[in-house]
Amino acid sequence: MTVTVLGRRPLVDPSDLVAALVPPPHFDGATLDTYLPDPAHPSQAQALAAVARFAAPHLRRVRLGRRGPGTGIYLDGGFGVGKTHLLAAVAHALRGRAAFGTFVEYTNLVGALGFAAARDALSRFAVVAIDEFELDDPGDTLIMARLMRELTDAGTCIAATSNTLPDALGEGRFAAEDFQREIQAVSRVFEVIRIDGPDYRHRGDLEFPPPASEELLGSLAGTAGGARVGWPALVADIAQVHPSRYGAYVDGVTALAVDGVAPLDDQNQALRVVALVDRLYDRDVAIAASGEPLTAIFPPEMLRGGYRKKYLRALSRLESMAHAALGDRVV
After folding, report:
1. Torsion angles phi and psi, residue 120, rounded to 5
2. Residue span of the signal peptide, if any (predicted)?
3. φ, ψ for residue 201, nearest 5 deg
4. Neighbour-count burial of 40, counting CB atoms closer than 10 A to its CB (0-12 exposed, 13-18 middle, 19+ buried)
């Protein structure tokens, strides 16, 4: 049955926001045992061991009140090296004693509940896991630095992933020098674990398929949970939805056919598309698109800017989802 996406305006009750802080469906099978380090990159096995050490006290159910200030671990590396897998594995292993969310989900939680209520709710967890940690604006810098400082002071541990080192957060995006104290406070929380290696989605040297035919678009849209949208309409519609609700925006969608892809006009559009791609990938949505190749959605000047790593991650995930629409297996 075809589903409708455009016009959705999901409302999430604030009381449900904390309960929703769990790993997304794509990482349902993520455990420390199912993380397969690349032998060519020893840092991956070292990261696995470091994450296991970080999780061990919580797996032994050590009481937070006896541990003093919380500790932090920060997984830094390029996209596609398994950082989110390891983060989700910790959350799954702790079975309800860990919160898992994206950076934007935590900032939205603070906005919805208020700082004190959000801090109190999160302090009940042994570990707060923050995926794709990034500081895209000064307000988020101040909020997240204070939140992590107060959580760790209360004994909650922090696990985070990013493709930017803690002391370089915000670099190239805003006047980071004006917020060095907050950025340094973020950096002090963490033990940084570097993970090297290629994007696992590209180990088979896959490339984007060509723009989809009408036959493929119609077939994909006609599947159970399939949806079909025009690219300009989709880009305009997501501007009316807060990125923290993009997961709810695409709930129930299993396949997405997109007509008339074209390069994006500005950075705000591009960042919204990145957030949408992440939520689609979390849900294993297959994607087919006509118009210009998906590789062209982020113009060259964007790929040279401060958000380059975000755009490249989105392209990597789009490639994986585009091959899924063809029935290809991406390993």
Report:
1. -65, -40
2. none
3. -70, -15
4. exposed
Q: Which residues of 254-286 are buried (b: 16+ CB within 10 A; e: fewer)?
A: bbbbbbebeebeebebbbbbbbbbbbbbbbebb
Q: Up-side HSE of residue 229: CA atoms within 13 Å toward CB?
A: 21
CA dist., res. 50 & res. 43, Å (int): 10
Inter-residue contact 321 to 280 (CB < 8 Å):
yes
Is 0.85 surpassed by the pTM of this model?
A: no
Q: Could you tell me the domains of the chain?
A: 31-197 (3.40.50.300), 201-325 (no CATH)
Instruction: List the 226-230 sheet strands across, edge first.
Output: 226-230, 255-261, 286-291
Alpha carbons 32 and 16: distance in angstroms, whole number: 28
Average pLDDT over residues 183-197: 77
pLDDT at residue number 182: 58
Count of CB atoms situated within 10 Å of the CB of 8: 19
Three-class SS state of 186: helix
Question: Does residue 265 surpass a pLDDT of 80?
Answer: yes
CB 157 within 8 A of CB 54: yes
Q: Is 101 helix (H, G, I), strand (E, B) or coil?
A: strand
CB 73 within 8 A of CB 50: yes
Cβ 170 vs Cβ 135: under 8 Å: yes
